[in-house]
């Protein structure tokens, strides 16, 4: 089978498996939510509400139906792209909640990933290009420390130092309440500021993004540092690199024009895997920094036992991860001709 036919077969297989993966995730979430203790009706009416009123609300929400009936109703709604209605937000559709809160999460994730790539790739290159030196030891130590530090702990330490003690960065919001945010076009404050030419709002949005993005990006950067350092070291020992040195090509040109290009290929694969960690880290970051994003809203919904909101947000995140993984795999297959399927 030719490589092009094999790649087409692989892409078709991944596309066919995507709905199965999403169905598995939604089923697990559905069952776990109903296996954990607590009653969403208590979150709506309060634990001291009359039992007759609780039974009426439970019947209206369909929570009194058998579990299999609830599951079939849930799958039927998903097939119609209906994520349901929040139990605790006065009947607000889950899609509306996602549209309101996701832009803050997307902005946090985008800039955190940019910081992670910038720091991780830079430290990895510096460490791999100077083996056996303090830069190499420091790079290894950096990868270990960033992998081991809990995100919530680092976030709290950053807030304590840079916000509470030094007063350099704000806390608990996305934009100052004393300044009007940029005109809403996409929901991304930085992009909306650029589109409307509001440079003051752009600077303010970046200022409020700085600390949470630095916390999340710094810890994720260790993943890229290790990948770049290991692969670049192997590449620098390859035969074609030795041949380039023998021809008298400067070491800097060998590093940037020959070795680095091949060493960065695995980074494309890691990007897809990191996206899941990024969304999970975004939830912790948003809760730690009280960032008004979808991850923070998910945390609140879990506390309130808001079944439709929790299920809808997790399904939304699952679709993002599955689609991004497929795109990354296809892109990696086209970029790296050594891959065979």
TrEMBL record:
<dbReference type="InterPro" id="IPR045621">
    <property type="entry name" value="BPD_transp_1_N"/>
</dbReference>
<dbReference type="Pfam" id="PF19300">
    <property type="entry name" value="BPD_transp_1_N"/>
</dbReference>
<keyword id="KW-1133">Transmembrane helix</keyword>
<feature type="transmembrane region" description="Helical">
    <location>
        <begin position="108"/>
        <end position="129"/>
    </location>
</feature>
<protein>
    <submittedName>
        <fullName>ABC transporter permease subunit</fullName>
    </submittedName>
</protein>
<dbReference type="Pfam" id="PF00528">
    <property type="entry name" value="BPD_transp_1"/>
</dbReference>
<feature type="domain" description="ABC transmembrane type-1">
    <location>
        <begin position="102"/>
        <end position="332"/>
    </location>
</feature>
<feature type="transmembrane region" description="Helical">
    <location>
        <begin position="263"/>
        <end position="284"/>
    </location>
</feature>
<keyword id="KW-0812">Transmembrane</keyword>
<comment type="similarity">
    <text>Belongs to the binding-protein-dependent transport system permease family.</text>
</comment>
<dbReference type="GO" id="GO:0055085">
    <property type="term" value="P:transmembrane transport"/>
</dbReference>
<keyword id="KW-1003">Cell membrane</keyword>
<feature type="transmembrane region" description="Helical">
    <location>
        <begin position="141"/>
        <end position="162"/>
    </location>
</feature>
<dbReference type="InterPro" id="IPR035906">
    <property type="entry name" value="MetI-like_sf"/>
</dbReference>
<dbReference type="GO" id="GO:0005886">
    <property type="term" value="C:plasma membrane"/>
</dbReference>
<feature type="transmembrane region" description="Helical">
    <location>
        <begin position="313"/>
        <end position="335"/>
    </location>
</feature>
<feature type="transmembrane region" description="Helical">
    <location>
        <begin position="12"/>
        <end position="33"/>
    </location>
</feature>
<keyword id="KW-0813">Transport</keyword>
<keyword id="KW-0472">Membrane</keyword>
<feature type="transmembrane region" description="Helical">
    <location>
        <begin position="205"/>
        <end position="224"/>
    </location>
</feature>
<dbReference type="InterPro" id="IPR000515">
    <property type="entry name" value="MetI-like"/>
</dbReference>
């Amino acid at each position: 089978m030719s490589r092009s036919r094999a790649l087409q077969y692989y892409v078709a297989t991944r596309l066919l498996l995507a709905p199965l993966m999403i169905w598995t995730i939604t089923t697990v979430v559905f069952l776990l939510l109903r296996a954990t203790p607590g009653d969403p009706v208590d979150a709506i009416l309060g634990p001291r509400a009359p039992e007759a009123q609780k039974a009426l609300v439970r019947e209206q929400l369909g929570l009194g139906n058998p579990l299999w009936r609830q599951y079939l109703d849930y799958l039927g709604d998903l097939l119609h792209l209906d994520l349901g209605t929040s139990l605790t937000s006065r009947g607000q559709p889950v899609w509306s909640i996602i549209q309101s809160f996701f832009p803050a999460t997307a902005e946090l994730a985008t800039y955190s990933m940019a910081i992670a790539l910038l720091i991780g790739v830079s430290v990895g290159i510096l460490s791999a290009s100077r083996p056996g030196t303090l830069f190499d030891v420091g790079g290894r130590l950096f990868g270990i420390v960033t992998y081991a530090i809990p995100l919530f702990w680092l976030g709290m330490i950053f807030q304590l130092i840079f916000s509470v003690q030094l007063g350099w960065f704000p806390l608990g919001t996305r934009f100052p309440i004393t300044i009007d945010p940029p005109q809403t076009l996409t929901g991304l404050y930085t992009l909306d500021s650029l589109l409307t030419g509001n440079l003051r709002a752009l600077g303010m949005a970046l200022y409020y993004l700085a600390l949470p993005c630095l916390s999340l990006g710094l810890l994720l950067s260790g993943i890229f540092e290790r990948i770049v350092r290991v692969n670049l070291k192997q590449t620098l020992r390859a035969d074609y690199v030795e041949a380039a040195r023998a021809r008298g090509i400067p070491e800097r040109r060998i590093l940037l024009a020959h070795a680095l290009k091949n060493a960065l290929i695995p980074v494309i694969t890691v990007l897809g895997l990191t996206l899941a960690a990024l969304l999970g880290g975004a939830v912790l970051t948003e809760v730690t920094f009280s960032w008004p994003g979808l991850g923070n809203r998910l945390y609140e919904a879990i506390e309130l036992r808001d079944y439709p909101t929790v299920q809808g947000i997790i399904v939304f995140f699952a679709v993002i991860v599955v689609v991004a993984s497929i795109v990354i795999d296809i892109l990696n297959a086209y970029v790296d001709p050594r891959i065979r399927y």
